[in-house]
Structure formats: structure tokens, C-alpha cells
Amino acid sequence: MSVVLPGDHVPAQHVNLKLGPGLLQVSNVVDNKTESNVMVTRAGIINHSTNRSKWWVESKSRRYVPAPQELVIGVVTQKVGEGYRVDIGSAHPASLDGLAFEGATKRNKPNLKVGSLVYARVSLAHKDMEPELECFDAQSRKSEGFGELKGGFMVRCSLSLCRELLDPKHFLLPLLGRRFPLEVAVGLNGRVWVNAKDIKHTIALVRCIEATDLDGGGLDAEGIQQLLNTLDI
Questions:
Q1: Residue 217 φ/ψ region, left for φ over 0, alpha for ψ in the -120 to 50 degree band, beta for the rest
Q2: Predicted structure pTM score
Q3: Directed axis angle between helix 221-230 and helix 199-212, to 10°?
Q4: Which CATH superfamily includes the segment(s) 153-230?
């Protein structure tokens, strides 16, 4: 891991290169040849996937900047024509087409209400356009867990914790899953949806996520175990 500052260049090169938050691809003309470079736009720690196809900057920012293919949890704020305006915590609301669901047709499509939660994928993100969302997997075109999130509770946390929770090696969700059945959807926009059969389990989920976040104490696995014992779970 290395710290980067705005204006730094990173050696991000891949056939299927995907840039996440904090990075911008710029083109320069040198000796009549166009060269593409990846420039840092925010301070933080540079990270990349195992095959180096995905790069992003990890920072403590709570303002979400949409990036293509990222998973987000949004709140429907308005119905517009055949689609919806969705709050995903970014500077501008996102648009969600009514047909951007698995098997949706003009006669058969979801009827979302204002205030509904949706788990979606960012299909388009550009600084000069409002982001667009889709509620199906890009490759299989199946829902794969995307769509309306019914019941449960949404908890807000740092963007960095959300990325950690999506890592199968992170301790929190497996630890809680061994205690009681649960459903969790993690959005990279600083939102986590949780659901359990018992209300006290849902409360425990929320308390543990907040306590694991650095802003809430940054507890490790041992600390969470102790917290669960105090909650009588």
C-alpha cells in the first residue's frame, strides 16, 4: 500500500482497466502520439485487484463519487415518466429506468414507491452526466440479488468499511452469520442493508457494523464478540 496525492500518476494498465473513486484517465499528445495516463484526484491509499484490472483510491471521504460497475444502495425519491430518480449519496441523483430489471417489459415491470430501497449497479458514471443504474448483473442479465430491498434496515457507514465488508476475508459478516441467520446487501456508497428474522438480531447487526467502523470505535473480532455478549445474542 502507498499513499497518493492529487496530481500523482499511477501505473494502471490493463486490457479491461476499470477505475474506481479517486482516479481519472487523461490523454496527452506527445510527439504526435496520444498517451493515456491515470491521474489521482483525491488523497488516500492506492489499491488494486489481484489481476490489477481494477484500481481505486481508499480515503476517509463520506461523499460517494459514482464509478461504473459499482454496487450501490439507493432510495427512490421521485418517479419520472417510465423511470425513477434515486438518491445514492452522490452530488447528483441517479436515474433508474423502469425496464432496467430482470425480465421487465412495458406491461410487466416493478412499481417502486417513493422511499423504496433498491440494490443496483452503476451502469454509467460521467462527471458531466447524472449516473445511471441497473438492477441486473451485467453478464448474466439476471437479477443476482439486485432489485427492491423489502423490510430490513439501512445503516450508513464509511466508504472504506463498505469495501472491507465486500471482502470475503473480513471477519464481521461471517462472525455474525455463525450467530444467527441474516441477509446483508453492501453498497459501495456508504450504505449497508441488513435483515434478520428477529428484531433484536437486526439491532445487533446495526450496532456491530457501526462499532466496526473507525468512526464508531473500530472494534476488531474480539471486540465484536464482547459487544454481542453484552447484547445477549
A1: left
A2: 0.81
A3: 150
A4: K Homology domain, type 1 (3.30.1370.10)
